[in-house]
Amino acid sequence: MNDKNIQILNTFTLDNIPDLDVAVLGALELFQKKAVPKLTLNTYKRPLVVGSGNAEATGRIIFQDTDAIFASESDYEEKLKTIKVIDGVVLVSASGSKHAPIIAKKAKEYHKHVTLITNTPNSPAKSELDNIHDFDEYIFPKNREPYTYNTSTYIGMILGYTGEDAAEIYKFLIEKIDTIKFPNFSNYNRFYLIVPPQFAGIIRMLQVKFIELFGRNIARDIETSEYVPHATTVAPSDELFISFGYKNNTWGKPEKRLNIPLPEKANYGAMMAVGYYIIAQIQKQHQPYFKENIASYTEQVTKIFGNTINPIVE
């Protein structure tokens, strides 16, 4: 294995920001070299798992088989206040900054132990932890990436949960996905992604990635194959239907269907990698909305959060 994509990630500037597929391959290169921490999910009987954006979605995936309660920065305090059986807070945050230290501090006010799952040593949220137990903090490896890509960050956490082999996912992308003859994605500004029911938890992650890369310039719907029949196509539009892991013979015109395979024993790590990889192919054939605006955007949110947010996360 070489690390050509990691090399790109280590050297790019604002003038040559890589597309999302480089971040996906770079993440899989990273986790062939570096082990991920083993999460202890039974520390609490009824944890409140909190995150923002894709961190919230990642937390839902990791703790899907536990008796957890889930929240975002918008509703975590209400749940701390009203759900008395919560016996600890698991905070998922790649940076450990922005809302993370605020949430951790508030959890302590409610006398709840906090566990931080992050990619950033000595983050602002760390000062709010007990810092005496093995389960106070889990730090996952990450690559240097454009701000918001958060690919190595969250795929590492998911691999820590699923135990999937990064090398096998990498091989599948190269041998099975790169060999697909893709349609001209630039002909479409509406996409409908259909995922298997067992991967319902990936929907929010794919939605967020579309929002980050395209804003409202490109429309998207993302549902499970079980949900699609429930009146989601009453008003037809000129969109491309992209199905993952099964052949769609029903939705959209036959010439506007793209079927993407998944590994035979795929889990959430493979689903995330393949999903992001396909979104990257769409990114390549459309105006670079993200690349054109990420620098000005980070200037804006730096003022909002009161700490420096750079367009490139080292």
Topology readout:
Blueprint lengths: L3 H8 L8 H14 L13 E4 L3 H9 L6 E3 L4 H7 L5 E5 L7 H10 L4 E5 L18 E3 L5 E2 L4 H12 L3 H12 L12 E6 L7 H12 L4 E6 L15 E5 L12 E4 L7 H17 L4 H17 L6 E2 L1
Helix pairs in contact: 1-2, 2-6, 2-7, 2-9, 3-6, 6-9, 7-9, 8-9
Please, could you describe this protein's structure?
With 314 residues, the protein is α/β, with parallel strands linked by helices. Among the domains are: 47-139, Rossmann fold; 166-290, Rossmann fold, CATH 3.40.50. Helices cover 38% and strands 14% of the residues. The protein has 10 helices and 11 strands. It has helices at residues 4-11, 20-33, 54-62, 76-82, 100-109, 151-162, 166-177, 203-214, 268-284, 289-305, and strands at 47-50, 69-71, 88-92, 114-118, 137-139, 145-146, 190-195, 219-224, 240-244, 257-260, 312-313. Strands 2-1-3-4-5 form a 5-stranded parallel β-sheet. A 4-stranded parallel β-sheet has the order 8-7-9-10, with helices on one face. Strands 6-11 form a two-stranded antiparallel sheet. Strand 7, helix 8 (203-214) and strand 8 (219-224) form a beta-alpha-beta unit. The radius of gyration is 20 Å and the shape is globular. The two termini are 23 Å apart. The model has no long low-confidence stretch (mean pLDDT 95).
Q: Briefly, what is this?
A:
This protein has 10 helices and 11 strands. The protein is of the alpha/beta class and 314 residues long. Among the domains are: 47-139, Glucose-6-phosphate isomerase like protein, domain 1 (Rossmann fold); 166-290, Glucose-6-phosphate isomerase like protein, domain 1 (Rossmann fold), CATH 3.40.50.
